[in-house]
Design brief:
The complex is a heterodimer of chains A (111) and B (113). Chain A has 111 residues and is mainly β. Chain A has strands spanning 9-13, 18-23, 31-38, 45-50, 55-56, 61-64, 70-75, 84-92, 105-110. In chain A, strands 1-9-8-3-4 form a five-stranded mixed sheet, with no helix packed on it. In chain A, strands 2-7-6-5 form a four-stranded antiparallel sheet, with no helix packed on it. In chain A, strand 3 and strand 4 form a beta hairpin. The model of chain A has no long low-confidence stretch (mean pLDDT 93). With 113 residues, chain B is mainly beta. Helix content of chain B is 0%, strand content 57%. Chain B contains no helices and eleven strands. In chain B, strand 7 (64-70) and strand 8 (73-78) form a beta hairpin. The model of chain B has no long low-confidence stretch (mean pLDDT 91). Classes of the chains: A mainly beta (111), B mainly beta (113). Chains A and B meet through strand 4 and strand 8 of A and strand 4, strand 5, strand 9 and strand 10 of B.
């Protein structure tokens, strides 16, 4: 079973920041938070991951609370092409292990 | 360049038939996976191979048999197809290094009639 809970859906206006929350209250000390997204009919795509510190890359930022029980994925300037299902996944790093997908958040970016 | 490719993209077949889906990755990864996405869009791991050896088998019926001829390929053979096998099957390859990221193929939509 997935160790994360996410809202089933969210809307965001084009050009605005999209903030996607994730709860992972049972996360272990050595587990990372990963985010993937799946654009309609395509394979899932890696976005970002982190352990404790906030992370940023060309796609998004990841904010992890100090107690690590929740995190937020931020898409700073959402575009219509960011419409997708976003999955928050907790897992060990460097193990080559499986991804356990939950239901994810369906983000709709509207003009 | 396509990182992870799958063939065919669509597969329509009758119940009871045997079919195969092929997957190839050109990323140099040692680990490859098969995931199944059902009609409710739920994505679930089926198998994982590392250097041609099976390391994850998630209680998938033995009608499903993965085969890895080399570490760049992981094919999925399905015998005696059933209606419930209809789904989208995704192959992925994994970088077990620091990022431990998985790269997914475009998927194969299997329809069993």
């Amino acid at each position: 079973d997935a160790k994360t809970t996410q809202p089933p859906s969210m809307d965001c206006a084009e050009g605005r920041a999209a903030n996607l929350p994730c709860n992972h209250s049972t996360i272990s000390g050595n587990e990372y938070v990963y985010w993937y997204r799946q654009i309609h009919s395509q394979g899932p795509q890696y976005i970002i991951h982190g352990l404790k510190n906030n992370e940023t890359n060309e796609m998004a930022s990841l904010i992890i609370t100090e107690d690590r029980k929740s995190s937020t994925l931020i898409l700073p300037h959402a575009t219509l092409r960011d419409t997708a299902v976003y999955y928050c996944i907790v897992r060990l790093n460097n193990q080559g292990g499986k991804l356990i997908f939950g239901q994810g958040t369906e983000l709709s970016v509207k003009p | 360049d396509t990182a992870v490719s799958q063939t065919p993209k669509y597969l329509v077949t009758q119940m009871g038939n045997d079919k195969s889906i092929k997957c190839e990755q050109n990323l140099g990864h040692d680990t490859m996976y098969w995931y199944k996405q059902d009609s409710k869009k739920f994505l679930k791991i089926m198998f994982s191979y590392n250097n041609k050896e099976l390391i994850i088998n998630e209680t998938v019926p033995n009608r499903f048999s993965p085969k890895s001829p080399d570490k760049a390929h992981l094919n999925l053979h399905i015998n005696s197809l059933e209606l419930g096998d209809s789904a989208v099957y995704f192959c992925a390859s994994g970088d077990r290094g620091l990022s431990d990221t998985q790269y997914f193929g475009p998927g194969t939509r299997l329809t069993v009639l």
